[in-house]
Amino acid sequence: QVQLAESGGGLVQAGDSRRLSCVFYGRTFSAYIMGWFRQAPGKERELVAEISATSSFTYEADSVKGRFTLSRDNAKKTVYLQMNSLKPEDTAIYYCAAKHDSTSIYGYWGQGTQVTVSS
Questions:
Q1: How far apart are CA 81 and CA 83, in angstroms?
Q2: Integer Cα distance of 91 and 116 in angstroms
Q3: Which residue of 5, 36, 89, 113 has the smallest Cβ count within 10 Å?
Q4: What is the pLDDT along the chain (119 residues), one digit of tens a residue?
Q5: How far apart are the first and last CA of the chain?
């Protein structure tokens, strides 16, 4: 069984930086692709960034490219989303998710952490 626990959300001002963390509870973290999604009020959930099991591949959505960086520490079973130059439109609930590298669907989700960016 896999459980994910996010932390690091909060209220920030536009232009600030924030780092979200997601701790993976379970076995073989190194076999999972990790992703961060976000959902703003009235909008669909969207993939923000994802990282392969070995960190050899990362993806960032166009809306955050150059501002957000996803990394992972397999020894600590933790994935980080470094968010720089935050904008009000980044305001959302951010969810950590995991999928085994043998599957195509994210099957495990955290409870979410709220990030609010004030202008």
A1: 6
A2: 5
A3: 89
A4: 899 999 999 999 999 999 999 999 999 999 999 999 999 999 999 999 999 999 989 999 999 999 999 999 999 999 999 999 999 999 999 999 999 988 889 999 999 999 999 99
A5: 40
Structure tokens at 84: 């720089």
Evaluate whether 48 touches 68 at the Cβ level (below 8 Å): yes
Residue 114 has a pLDDT of 98
Dihedral sign, Cα of residue 70, residue 77, residue 47, residue 41? negative
Which uninterrupted H or E stretch holds 55? none
Residue 70: closest CA among 45, 113, 37, 42:
37
Nearest CA among 93, 105, 80 for reference residue 23: 80
Residue 23 exposed, middle or buried by CB count within 10 Å (0-12, 13-18, 19+): middle
CB–CB of 96/29 below 8 Å?
no
